[in-house]
Every structure is written in C-alpha cells, then in structure tokens.
Amino acid sequence: MPTFLLEIGTEELPADFVDSAIEQWRAKIPRSLEEQFLTPEAVKIYGTPRRLAILLEGLPAQQRDREEEIKGPPSQAAFKDGKPTKAAEGFARKQNIPLEALEIRETDKGPFVFVQKQIPGRPTTEILQALCPSWITGLEGRRFMRWGDGDLRFPRPIRWLVALLDAEILPLSLANTSEIINSDRRSQGHRVLHPEVVSISTASDYVKVLRNAFVAVEPDQRRQLIEQQVQEAAKKLQGFAEIPGDLLTEVVNLVEWPSAVIGSFDASYLELPTEVIVTVMVTHQRYFAIKETSDRHSRLLPNFITISNGDPSKAKIIGAGNQRVIQARLADAQFFYKTDCSRPLESYLPQLETVTFQEDLGTMRDKVDRIIKLTGQLAQQLQITGQDRSQIEQCALLCKADLVTQMVYEFPELQGIMGEKYALVGGQPEAVARGIFEHYLPRGAEDILPQSLTGQIVGIAERLDTLVSIFGLGMIPSGSSDPFALRRAANAIIAIAWEAPLKINLVQLIEQNSADFVAAHCDRQSPNIALQEFFLARIRTLLQDERGIDYDLVNGVLGENDPEYAQRALEDLLDVRDRAQFLQGIRQNGKLDNIYETVNRSTRLAAKGALDTEQLNPEAAVNPELFEKSSEQAFSQR
Q1: CA 443 → CA 413, 447, 482, distances in Å?
Q2: Rounded to whole angstroms, how far apart are CA atoms 146 and 415?
Q3: Where are the domains of the chain?
C-alpha cells in the first residue's frame, strides 16, 4: 500500500511552534482522513527548526466504496395520483438514477422520497491534493507573519514543499501572490553540515535520506541524543547534569543534528546564589548546569553544556564563544547582586510606588498595604498571635520589595528567590525570608506548596487581594480566557488551606474585602457574590479532578441547590474537604449503599404517614401495620 510524504521547508521556526504544530496535526490529520473515508496504517508527524513533515504509511489507493442515502422532496410533491411529478423527475435526474429507484419512507416530518446510491471511492491522490493545503494553512499559533507581497501566513517563510506518493510527485502549490511554491522531491539537508539539495526518491526513504544529510527529523530521537550527550559530557567533568524538562523540550526544537559542547566560567562566580547562576544558564542561554553529584542540594561546578546545531569539529570555537557570553552575563549578575545587597530590603519599599500593579488598582505599594491588611484578618481568624503574627506582618511588608532590585529587574524569574536572599543578608528572621520566597508557591500545577506559616498566610492574602481586585473590575475569567491566572490563584488558596491545614472562612474574607474595594472604587459593583460562586466552582473542580470524589457526592457536600450548604463550604474549607473524602471512603468500602438504603426506606415510610418534622419522640405516630419486614417489627419493640 502507498506511503505519502508531505514536507514543509521553512526558515528557522520558533521552538514552541514545532511542538504545537506536531500536536495539532496529530489531532487533525487522522480525523480529516477518516472524514474522507481514508484510513492509513500509520500517521507519523515530524518536526525540526526548518521543517514539518507528515508521513502516511499504508494508504489505500482510493477511498472506500460506500452506500449513501439521499433525501429528496416530500412524497406528496414527488407523486400525484401515483405518477411522478417534475419534482421527482428533477431529483432522479440530479442523482443520475432511474425513477424506479426512488423509495418512499416515513420520517418525523412525514413521508419523503429517498434514494440509495453506491458511491465509488475517489483516488487517494485527489483527496490528498484537496487536504494538504488545508493542513498547512490550518495550523494555528502566536507569532505568524507574512512575507513577500502575498497574504500567506506562517510563523516563518515557507521555502520548499515536498509531496510524494511513493515515488511519484503529488502536484501541490502554495500561492503567495507573485511567489508560487510548487511541490517537488527536493528537500534541504542540514544548513551547515549538508547545505546541498537533497533528492528524496521515494516517500518511505524520507527519514533515512534526511539522516544521511545530518537531519534527525524525529523529535524523540533528538531528545534521546541530547540526553545521552549531555550526561556523557557531564561524566567527562566528573559531575552530574541537570536536565530540566522544559529546557530539554526547547533545545530539541532548536537543533536538527545535536552535538554537546562543554564550556566553563570563572569559579569566582560560584559565590553568587545558585539560583542566579542557573537562571543565567538555563533561562537566558539554554545551557545545562553541571553539579558535583545528583543530590538536589549539590554544589555547582564552574562548567556548562550547550547543544550546538553547528559543526562538531568546531566545538572548541563554539565553546569559547559561549564562554565569553556567559562570563559577561555572570559579571552583570555579580554587579547587580553586590549593588542590591548594599541596601536593606526595606529601603526598596518607596520605589514600589513607581511600579503599577494594574491601571485601576494603584501601585505595588498599594497592593502591599492591602496584603498586610488581609494577613491581619487571616491571623485574627486563625488566632495567630505573638511572634508568628509579627513575622507574618513583616513578611507581608517585604514580600514585593525585591521587584525593584536590579537583579529582579534584569531576571524577573528570580522574584521571591532574591527577596529571600536579600532578607537574610539584611538580618531578617529566617521565617520572614522564607515566607517572601514561599508566598509565590505554587508557581505552577506541579510545584510544591508553601511549608512555612508565613508563606502560607502571605500567599493566601496576596492571591485573595488579586481575586477581589480583578473581580471588582469586572474582569471575570470566561472560557479559556484567564489573563490574570485567577483560576490558578483560587486553586492555590484552596490547596494551601487543605495542605496546611488552615480553617479559613472565605465568606467572611470575601465580604470584608469586597466592601473595602467598593469603598475605594465607588463606581464599581461588589465582587462578593461572583467571587463566592467562583470559589465554589474551583472547590468542585479540585474535589472531582484532583481528589477523585464522585460527582454526586460533590453535589451533596456543596449543596447543589442549597445556598446554606454552599455557604457552609466556603466558611470552612477543611470541613467541605473532609466531608467529601469521608463520603467517598464509605462509598468505596460499601457502607454508603447500606446507609442510603436505610435513609431511603425511612423517607418512604415517613411519606406514608403524617409525622411532624418537629416531633422529637415519634412513637405515637408509628403505625406497625405499615411494617413490611420482620426486622422492622423487631426494631420497634426494642
């Protein structure tokens, strides 16, 4: 059975688009083929910085033959006195069938004329010629562009097109006004290692031919090569390489033929906080850091590994160039660090007045004041006093101060991290410093939660202020749109309270701060009700998706149509979690079914009588004649 190849050759694509395009095609192509009654044995999608490719193996030569039922006019319009009318004749002529082939069938709207047609399958070449342009132009992404004088849009200019059905070129063209890109069998090898044109004789040879031209088109193969080369290079340095998943994914899509290059930097820079060095290497240079051992607390070595897309024989030249770059970046970081440490963290607070939090919500200094107020309310709810409370207040005061330091201005990823470092340098208590870092946790779905009380309270306060403020402006998340990450903020508040555990009354906090918001913004409506409903929805999602609680049990603890139950859930986050988990537990061990049967039986019995719901002793209202089982008789005699 034939194999089909489609390759789109481009200028260097953004790394994140390569993965996105592969995922889009994996979802779209099998579905679009099935809609055209074509089912290949395998659909393989490839991507590199300079190309995206589709390989369809085991394609049938044509569509499946099929039978199609076509509905025509109502029978009363098609036949009169048993004879076909012009409507019937026209329908038969259009379908290219004799009048005798028409059938009358009943439908919800009365009798209609139908015809059963045998549809022969169209050649696969015709189908592919129709589908391929839509596969290309149907890709979506963020940074699309136009080039030349045309309207064709793609993340980078398309330079060539390969389309082969086995050994035959499938005629395709992409028109970009004066530039027309026609399909061929000619591809391109590696830009440096094999800059010549590559001719692909047959579609099934694609991966092998490109590999011979120093292009590994399979992302998984490049991933394996990079991991292997990085660890081998680390062993040469007698160290261990950190391979963050996000960095690896990005680097995989930055190279077509990876080769690891070892570099080094001045060991004096190791005096900088480890997080600073790693941020410079990983986030800004896409280097892999090297540690002494695999232990997460192990010290860094003054070395790095970068993955080159160039000539491996020039590794020394490539390494030297990268060393000059990182030396300069680390020198800048060292200057920022020394300058920032020359002042206590609290001295940066006035500068927060120059940083806007949100146009209608004031500065970061205003936000800090609101966070301080919220931490006080939380401390009062949770009866936190003494040193713990004073440290929470101090942490709230300083939690955003590092935003205006030189280091965080240059490396925003270090917010909170540098706040902790600078707080310790300035002599702040460890609980205050740790809380500054932890109040940002969790930073993502897989991140850890804050472990210290200061981090937990300040983290909840910071997020709740954001929620009240943004909801107050009417910017409520809808669908997939959530520019302020409010769902994540609400999820974090609930998760922190559950993990700590903290018995938080969200109703009280939301009402209190909604009133404060309206007092400060007289032209705005209170976000109170909307925000409470939002939290209920987040609790529902977390209980079902993360705790595995059954849908009906979640409805039970949240009170599907009972405002009192809903309010109870928000008044005590621990209680709603515990009740849901308890019900799930007794359902799994079978006890819930027994309880349900007992309650259900009692409800049916009560419905047959006239028992006053306020009556504490129902003996006088019990009618033994209604008993149906001996167990009921025995129970009544106890």
Answers
A1: 11, 6, 16
A2: 37
A3: 4-62+123-212, 66-119, 219-341, 345-585, 591-636
